[in-house]
Amino acid sequence: MLNMQNVVLKMTAGRKDQFPRDGHVQIALSGRSNVGKSSLINTLLGRKSFARTSAQPGKTITINFYEVDKKLYLVDLPGYGYARRSADSRRVWASLTNDYLVSGTMQMVFQLIDLKVGPTEDDYMMIEWLNANHVPYVVVATKADKLGTTARNANFDALASHPLLNPPYADEKIRTIMFSSQSGMGKNELLSILSELAQN
User: Fold this and answer.
1) In the chain, is it the N or the C terminus that has fewer CB atoms within a 10 Å radius of its CB?
2) What angle do CA 16, 17, 23 make, to 5 degrees?
3) What ranges make up the beta strands (E) of the chain?
4) Which of 20, 128, 136, 125 is nearest to 72 (CA)?
5) What is the pLDDT of residues 16-43, one digit of tens each?
């Protein structure tokens, strides 16, 4: 079992030569700015503010490596799709994120999608990249508490049944998990995935 309380921010990387290469399992968290990556990390770790949300979404262009129990990294990728980001800033984001994605160090991606907003064009592009490169991933439908039961279930069913989440190379549909940092919905499922990966 993973001790999720045993966690440190191991590295805040702004260059590819800073990426840890110590053999730990790495799970990357990908999603648009303000999709809830920090809230997801804090929920999984049982902390209130270990991973801090930027006051200006999309401002930070670094990759945070949270080392859990000296076995696994939660890798917080910078959020994409922030409209106010400058052209130079977008180039830096693309370069750093691409350097990590092609580094060959990650075992899985948690692809976060806001359940209320639904998938954006940037989300589709990311999923298409994951599919094309046969990268294992799980879709995490965040902010489930922001919707009533009927709308929540309808949005989740539409997301989970999307053709992109049934890539031809996969033996089965991509797993989709409904998540809420407020209620803890989906937390145990995600922790189970992390524990399984850490044991492999």
Assistant:
1) C
2) 95
3) 7-13, 25-30, 63-68, 72-76, 108-114, 137-142, 176-178
4) 20
5) 999 999 999 999 999 998 899 999 999 9
Q: Which among 148, 153, 73, 156 has a CA at the least distance from the CA of 114?
A: 156
163-190 burial string, b = 16+ CB within 10 Å, else e? Answer: eebebeeeeeebebbbbbbeeebbbeeb
Q: Nearest CA to 41 among 199, 196, 194?
A: 194
Q: Is residue 1 part of a domain?
A: no
Give the number of other CB atoms < 10 A from CB of residue 119. 21
Q: How far apart are CA 51 and CA 49, in angstroms?
A: 5
What is the distance between the alpha carbons of residues 9 and 12, in angstroms, rounded to a whole number? 8
The CA-based angle 107-32-7, given to 5 degrees, is: 50
User: Which pTM was predicted?
Assistant: 0.91
CB-side neighbour CA atoms (13 Å) of 53: 12
- The number of distinct structural domains making up the chain is 1
Strands 137-142 and 108-114: parallel
Q: What crossing angle do the helices spanning 37-45 and 187-199 adopt, rounded to 10°?
A: 70
Give the CATH number for residue 125: 3.40.50.300
Whose tokens are 């949005």? That residue is 155
Residues making up the chain, counted from first to last: 200
